[in-house]
């Protein structure tokens, strides 16, 4: 083959390899549930698509939902908007709440906080409308700054934490379950960093891994896109992933595992007993020597060669002569 054509061929292969690499960066990772999609996928959240336990969150804006098809697409849980502030009930809440349960989807209700209303008013309101269903997931307190809404008030961090604490207490008293905290990047940075760390956190990041957006060691739920597509829902829907195992998810639902503090309340996985080590090769003397079992000195009991060969200043160390 002429040299010029050979060079051209190598250049073509290089271009193809580069194109494949760029496609890998842009295209989303292979989803665990192929029936679900995204109208505007982002490679920064590709890890969330591989999580085993995935769900959605919905409100009136998703219209009438075909929950049978939602279930068939692999949806394991749904957070359903119930209340907002101190006087708003989502008009689709009761229907979504009943239909999700009827189709075997674990569901929890969420309350959207308004900073213009007192905590007492909001507690009274969500206690009136959020069902006390022992089969439901723990409730969610949705805390964000209300940019672009009628309530644009920015209260201090201390005031916000005081209100949040009162509403978390109210939700727990009402449902008997430790609430989940939903928030976004800005509000977490302004208010929640280092606060309520024993509560489960549900965090939003639609363009990057959570570790790059939040100063937190752990989280329990990730809202990874607001442009998800799920059979049974017309248009976009928020998609979420649970960070945990099947065992943890089931035990959390049963009240045996606290996903916020990572503590078990019975039924925790048992650590398998260590099997004895097999007899090492050469453990017996040669037949010519009688085949007697040899004794091996454990490493921790190897005697020092001289009285001063061990460095007493360093545990477990032996000075080299």
From TrEMBL:
> Which GO molecular function, any one, fits this protein according to its record?
lysozyme activity
Spell out the residue ranges making up region: Disordered. 263-321
What segments bear the compositional bias annotation Polar residues?
Answer: 312-321
User: Gene3D superfamilies, per this entry?
Assistant: Glycosidases
Biased composition of type Low complexity is found at 280-291
Q: Name one GO biological process term.
A: carbohydrate catabolic process
UniProt keywords (A-Z) are: Glycosidase, Hydrolase
Pfam families (UniProt xref): Glyco_hydro_25
Question: InterPro entries, alphabetically?
Answer: GH, Glyco_hydro_25, Glyco_hydro_fam25_subgr
> Which PANTHER family does the record associate with it?
LYSOZYME
Report the family membership. Answer: Belongs to the glycosyl hydrolase 25 family.
Q: What is this protein called?
A: Lysozyme
**What species is given as this protein's source?**
Bosea thiooxidans
